[in-house]
Amino acid sequence: MATTDGCSNGNGKAASVVVPEIKFTKLFINGEFVDAVSAKVRNVTCVCYDFNPAGKTFETRDPRTGDVLAHVAEGDKADVDLAVKAARDAFEHGKWPRMSGYERGRIMNKFADLVDQHTEELAALDGADAGKLLLLGKIIDIPSATQMLRYYAGAADKIHGEVLRVSGKYQGYTLKEPIGVVGVIIPWNFPTMMFFLKVSPALAAGCTIVVKPAEQTPLSALYYAHLAKLAGIPDGVINVVPGFGETAGAAISSHMDVDSVAFTGSTEIGRVIMESAARSNLKTVSLELGGKSPMIIFDDADVDMAVNLSRLAIFFNKGEICVAGSRVYVQEGIYDEFVKKSVEAARNWKVGDPFDASSNMGPQIDKVQFEKVLKYIEHGQSEGATLLTGGKPTGDKGYYIEPTIFTEVKEDMKIAQEEIFGPVMCLMKFKTVEEAIEKANCTRYGLAAGIVTKSLDIANRVSRSVRAGTVWVNCYFAFDPDAPFGGYKMSGFGRDQGMGAMDKYLQVKSVITALPDSPWY
Amino acid sequence: MAAATRRAASSLVARCLLAGRASAAGAPPAVPSALRRPDGTRGLLPGVFQRFSTAAVAEEPISPPVQVNYTKLLINGDFVDSASGKTFPTLDPRTGDVIAHVAEGDAEDVNRAVNAARKAFDEGPWPKMTAYERSRILLRFADLIEKHNDEIAALETWDNGKPYEQAALIEVPMVARLMRYYAGWADKIHGLIVPADGPHHVQVLHEPIGVAGQIIPWNFPLLMFAWKVGPALACGNTVVLKTAEQTPLSALYVSKLLHEAGLPEGVLNVISGFGPTAGASLASHMDVDKLAFTGSTDTGKIVLELAARSNLKPVTLELGGKSPFIIMDDADVDQAVELAHFALFFNQGQCCCAGSRTFVHERVYDEFVEKSKARALKRVVGDPFRKGVEQGPQIDEEQFNKILRYIRSGVDSGATLVTGGDKLGDKGYYVQPTIFSDVQDGMKIAQEEIFGPVQSILKFNDLNEVIKRANASQYGLAAGVFTNNLDTANTLTRALKVGTVWVNCFDIFDAAIPFGGYKQSGIGREKGIDSLKNYLQIKAVVTPLKNAAWL
């Protein structure tokens, strides 16, 4: 790791930022780091740096400064073809799907151990590439990722078919077979978690994989490819092709030789992916998309606890999280107190360099998102919501935004309907449980919901009545590898996590055998 | 031995212990893989142990490459003397010599162990830590077993007499494998949310049952340890384990490793001792919540009775067997001979699931008997520490004498003694590989569990007949079926009243395959997902729902 003064792009006078060493910037195909086969010329004028003349590259930037972190090989259709071919060969002829689940599990456990050993470096990589808090990377992102990997390592030898009760003189059973080559397209907000959320169950199932990380955050995925190889995952089983959605991503989702695609990202892109799957080979699709998750706080709640929880629910990871509790519904009895305390709490939420352990929140991922969030804040004001706190960029460079709270938000306002994906809380008041349920469900999304109450009846009733894939009661972001995660409605379909997620990566085969003579049927 | 070789050999053996697959691939009829050298040749020193050679046993026993460091009781994380201060000797079955004097647990020690386990259960941290943390400890334990593989295997062979190669290449790696299997279950133990008929929310919680008492036998000391301790710990229970008095050493050794891996004190307590004293105290203890026993059917009955008379603790029993091995007329006789030989003689015949009734179709009967005899004569019996040895001594003098009595009974009842029939050497408990043919269903050797290297071959001529005869046993542990006819295989598979049917294979013991008996072979299943429920209580939680969107 090196400290620079940030002068590399001429934008020089800010405080020092710690930049980790970047070791892997090429595509990872068939066990090797390779240049992109595509020509190097791209529609970007690269005015600086030694970029690799051998193939096309793109810049990944540090959101703390806007500086270029690295030039990364840019995968396009031709590269995806090579990666899919490698994955196909590894699937059809390689050891991975043919070894025992136990052996796969052992290699996956070794992979997890290697990731653990590099926690510091990997957290720094995501910190610089995604603007994520270094400390949380070390204590949450990376350990959760290895827990996920170990969970599915333990699942690899627990893939059970069933012996069926067929009516007639037959014996029936099911086999669960790996589905084949899986395309994985993941977002930039949790580069590490998203990688392992998809890759771990696919590996356990015996599939081979082509991963396209987000163009904003390609670095850790390449590092994981390297560690996977060290752990003994055979060549071709994991391929990583950094690149852009409209090129590399589209090539995966429309590929005729990819058997399934798992995507996490925006609802708009999810739709495009499903469409290209439909137009190509009808590959199975699982989508984990956007959300506008309600956080519902009832009169009987401990207000301080509720304030802290709802602050976490929206400002954690700078609001760049699909399950952000972005609509906060507060019952009228505690509304005023809640508002007052929330403003205070937001002001105490420290924005700063994610490598500074005292920061609560780093910069938004990039300029595009930064501007989009500010635009939503403008919308909120022009639509008549009251801006209680925040609302502005902060710092003199990078993409930092103040924790922002709106009140007097109406259900039909843009900021109450659309996913902002930034540190913007919409606060709303309600009177009755019925009203809370109705308002909570008044969205095209259905990813998650939070409930804060001491009442068992309210908790049970609202849990069942909210149309969302995850409900957190008196907690939020309580993710666990064993707890299925995914969306209702336009938040997607299919579930990550849990034993059920294995099904996305498995085919089911029924085998029926004539059984002319048996003492029982 | 390199870890990689060991793993490869172990998985090979687990997948296919029979020559069949190797032959199909064009290789010569094979010995079980564990007994092959890496170059594929039999690890047999020329001329040394031919045909139950007494030379082998007359030789000075090989000095085991391991120290005995742990001989005390393990209670609450500490190795302690027994309350009485008593010890008992554990003997080397190769010679009958004392290996070590081991602290002898009795009622008072069991009380102390149960108290420690109770405290560890009620106060934690074990059941209160996350399942992921428990699984990490079991994974670390597996890594430590792997690291100490050869020492553990040596201890096992020394105390038990089983071939060292079998212990080192199959059994100890299998212990690590089982621990990893159960580690993987720890964070996947699911209750159901079940539908109610009215406005109720119903959760089914799977909770650890509490203090588990476990009593294990001497034939596979560590595998039995793993079958019992693995699921109990994965589910968050605490354990008091009584090992067999013949083989107390290896469990103490690995339990030390388990503590090194991070197991909190009191979670696993190990009591060495005898059945009528320590075992009975555990089975009748009022503060033990669950009992699991593997051993003889006679003792199983006592254990079940003690549970009934004390606190009604639920009991799982894995007991004796007299498992049929059925060879149909379409069988490749050479392969069938090798498999049937393995099914009976493996582990000196000291397997509860030994294929001890070899039913052979009359059309291949004579050839089968002839070739079985030739195979038995080639069986390499000798010091289990010597490379290439297939069969070591029986566990102790009592078993040794019992087997010899059964052999006399076979002769007296008119069965034809084809080969063997006597002890081997003048030291230790070696028995010649023995085969009887013309065995009739009513003979004692066809009815009772011999638990030694005595194969009984019976003739049949019809599928329905063999089903009937195979099922005419008080036992129902396992069966082998040898045929390539799909319909025959399916019919036999479903008609045999046994807990495991091996078709064209035998003794395949993967972690995920449930194992246990029908009839007097026991109650419940071990290994696989089914083993978890032995160690879980089920609690239904019912809450009214008020105005929920759906039921």
From TrEMBL, chain A:
PROSITE patterns: ALDEHYDE_DEHYDR_CYS, ALDEHYDE_DEHYDR_GLU
Keyword Zinc: no
Keyword Oxidoreductase among UniProt keywords: yes
Pfam families: Aldedh
Active-site residues from the entry: E288
PANTHER family associated with the record: ALDEHYDE DEHYDROGENASE-RELATED
Protein family: Belongs to the aldehyde dehydrogenase family.
Name used for this protein in its record: Aldehyde dehydrogenase 1
Organism: Eragrostis curvula (weeping love grass)
TrEMBL record, chain B:
Domain Aldehyde dehydrogenase: 79-541
Name of the protein this chain belongs to: Aldehyde dehydrogenase domain-containing protein
Gene Ontology molecular function, alphabetical: aldehyde dehydrogenase (NAD+) activity
Signal peptide region: 1-24
Organism: Eragrostis curvula
Listed GO CC annotations: mitochondrion
PANTHER family: ALDEHYDE DEHYDROGENASE-RELATED (PTHR11699)
Family from the record: Belongs to the aldehyde dehydrogenase family.
One biological process term in Gene Ontology: carboxylic acid metabolic process
Keywords, sorted A to Z: NAD, Oxidoreductase, Signal
PROSITE patterns: ALDEHYDE_DEHYDR_CYS, ALDEHYDE_DEHYDR_GLU
Residues forming the catalytic site: E318
InterPro entries cross-referenced by the UniProt entry: Ald_DH/histidinol_DH, Ald_DH_C, Ald_DH_CS_CYS, Ald_DH_CS_GLU, Ald_DH_N, Aldehyde_DH_dom
Residues annotated as transmembrane: none
Pfam family, one: Aldedh
